[in-house]
Write a structure and sequence with these properties.
By secondary structure, this protein is mainly alpha-helical. The protein has 8 helices and no strands.
Length: 137
């Protein structure tokens, strides 16, 4: 459980570093389109709503900026990890994140479906459980 918390917090820090570097470098429209495959309208949407960046887009940007990246691919491990949790812990995560089995299956098939707020809530809950010594209540 602690390892998953570390993966999530590493992702949050890396994500912030990538977005900060992209902002400082001022990526051109052409480079943005070529790297992410998104149109210019999406660039502005991402600028004003940074939570909408998907893990794969963060990964592509990090490669373009030459930042060492190992953590964005580990987001693929979150859904299988949750699937293997005890029922009560999984239910607590579902309730906190407004997830259900169908949404979890969607994220299992494609980790890009994770929303930042879901990952943050999962990290917080897992850290809380770990701090309490594995107790879920």
């Amino acid at each position: 459980m602690n390892e998953m918390v570390q993966i999530l917090y590493s992702y949050f820090r890396f994500r912030s570093a990538v977005l900060r570097t992209a902002s400082l470098k001022g990526i051109s429209h052409k480079t943005f389109v070529n790297v992410t495959g998104l149109n210019i309208e999406r660039k502005y949407k991402r600028k004003y709503n940074p939570e909408s960046w998907k893990p794969s887009e963060i990964h592509k940007l990090s490669i373009e900026m030459g930042l060492p990246n190992t953590v964005t691919r580990k987001i693929d491990l979150v859904a299988p990890f949750i699937m293997d949790l005890p029922f009560l812990v999984k239910q607590k995560i579902f309730k906190s994140c407004a997830l259900d089995q169908r949404k979890l299956n969607s994220r299992l098939r494609n980790a890009d479906n994770w929303q930042l707020n879901e990952l943050e809530k999962i990290a917080f809950l897992l850290e809380e459980i770990h701090r309490k010594g594995g107790s879920i209540m």
